[in-house]
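Reading a protein record of the kind used here takes only a little practice. An example makes this concrete, so a full record is given next.
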Amino acid sequence: MKTHRSSKIRAFPLQLVLIVPFVLQVFGIVGLVGYLSFKNGEKAVHDLADQLMKRTSSEVNQHLDAYLSIPHKVIELNADAIRMGLLNVRDRRTVGKYFWHEMQAYDLSFISLNLATGEGTGAGRYDGKTVTIDDNAIKTPSLPKNTITYLTDNDGNPTKIMTTSTWDTVNEPAYTEPVKAGKPIWVRIYTYYDPAYPPYIVASAGRPIYDATKKLIGVVGAEIHLLKLSEFLRKLDVSHFGQVFIIERNGMLVANSGQEKPFTLVNNEIKRLKAIDSPNPVVQGIAKQLQQHIPDFQSITNMQKLNVNFQGENYNVHIVPWRDQYGLDWLVVTSIPDRTFMAQINANTQISILLCFAALVVATTIGIFTSDRITRPILRLNQASQAIAFGDLQQTVKDGNIKELNTLAYSFNYMAGQLRQSFIALENSNAELEERVEKRTVELKTALTELQRTQAQVIQSEKMSSLGQLVAGVAHEINNPVNFIHGNITHLKDYTQDLLRMIHLYQQRYPSNDPEVQALADEIDLEFLMTDLQKMLSSMQMGTERIRSIVLSLRNFSRMDEAEFKKVDIHEGIESTLLILQHRLKSQPQRPAIEVIRDYGNLPQVECYAGQINQVLMNILVNAIDALDEANTKRTSEEIKANPNQINIRTSVSDSQLLEIAIADNALGMSEEVKKCIFNPFFTTKSVGKGTGMGMAISYQIITQKHCGRLECFSTLGKGSQIIIQLPMGQQALDNEV
């Protein structure tokens, strides 16, 4: 037997083929996992840094909103107190004591009142702890030092003079700038240094106050210490190497999270620093990088993200603008270096490399051992296979130590006699199987299509049947007790009339002044009771009649009963509906009463289903009341008073053929998308449990199908909505009933 080797294909030993791919696979997987781990870690670092900086910027903005709103709230309170006469601006001592008490409640540095006459008063913390009271008299040649600072006791009473100084209040920016602006503003960032006290750097807020004739009284002011912003920034959890600082649009430093101050002392005078001149090297370096990337800070209108390099290290930087309505316009800068999170990732990378080499050594050793155990029986099997390929089917292969290879050897020994028959049987089986699968697939597709069609029909039928049965059942269950109440009210009304006549007869026949009888009559207010009882019974009778008509409308909608088509007075239906809704129209704790404006025309009686028309009126009026209540939740009491809640009801006859009812509210209105869907079944804009979405759909069916009329909705977003009902005056509605 001869063997032939091809010179065109290079063959490799089986042992090498088994070892090399296995080792390369292990090495590649470990290396790829290490690389992906490093890249994912690097991406996670940037994502984590971005989230941390967003959270930090949000915390800083929230703190600025809260902390810097305090001065304007305080001066607003003080201005209101002066305007209402609660504070006498001429009584400087009382005003100063009032400011002293405010200093106990608010974290401020100084509260002041400077009058147009040059007088003034105030309370402040010069040492950051002790609250003192300042009293400013009018500066005159005989009184050059017109300002006296008093120490106080625990009740805010001046005890002794601490210092005297000269202060020309009406020429200070804290007075002149608010007067010039004519509204509350931030005056400036103000600094003052006294060796006896800590450095004084504050933001000053001022508000002019006027009397009833618009004459200037003076300026109320409040100052807040900006060093406390730096204290807050130092408490932020922004990593060990991160920095947060706040700058003005001109680059002046306001506060920073480092230990360095945002100013310097030169000849006993505080000099504010620009961020690029900060003694903190990181703040200084980041600020210089920002100045190179964004030369004009005024152009920053939203959050900016930058990656800058400082001293060979990458920093992730976020710049978030912050401003308020009184003139402050700052930038909050947050920076975090990559090294904050990269140390562990670099360590993991080194470990991955070591594991890669260890896995390579282990994989090579195992591969050599495994390949030796596999190749020996395979070589024997290869020799037998070559013999079978040349037609020698009598070859046998000895058993080895691998069970699967033993089974393979048995298969090769058996293959010689069965190979041809197996191929023929396999081809026949494949052809038969393909034919059966194709036929079964066609049958399944046809059955699935038919099942889907039947399922859709059943679901639609069940929906409509369930809706009709539900409405009819509810109407039936309500109708029985209401009929019982309604029938007994008539008898109760007759009995009450008889009893009242009996009481009148007794009063005429026996007009004795029995003190007990008289006392009981006064206690129960007999005269009012006799009058109101009849009104109450009439109202109850009207209410049960309204419920009966609503039940009748539900029956009509469900097609379980028929209502009476007759001539009615539309105005009576409107008034009865308003009476039932009176509890919704009257004043509530959160709003005043809803005013109903009636503009009734001279209408003839109209042929219609009265109960159904009343049901439509009820649905429209309830929706109008709900819309007004929802609008009130978004308005203040002053806005509600300025634009009180109103429902306008107008009736008229159009072209002598149509009766028109227009119901309008002054709520928030609705968008075009909502207006297009308002008459669709089950569509509602109310929260879960407050609406079914069927009211307007039923109303539309009653007007258009039962009465051959029109129901239209007109709405302007922010101004309210109007529903217009048009009913034919004649009998043609009955002819077109569905």
About this structure: DSSP finds 17 helices and 22 strands in the chain. The radius of gyration is 46 Å. The domain at 229-342 is CATH 3.30.450 (Beta-Lactamase). The longest strand covers residues 200-210.
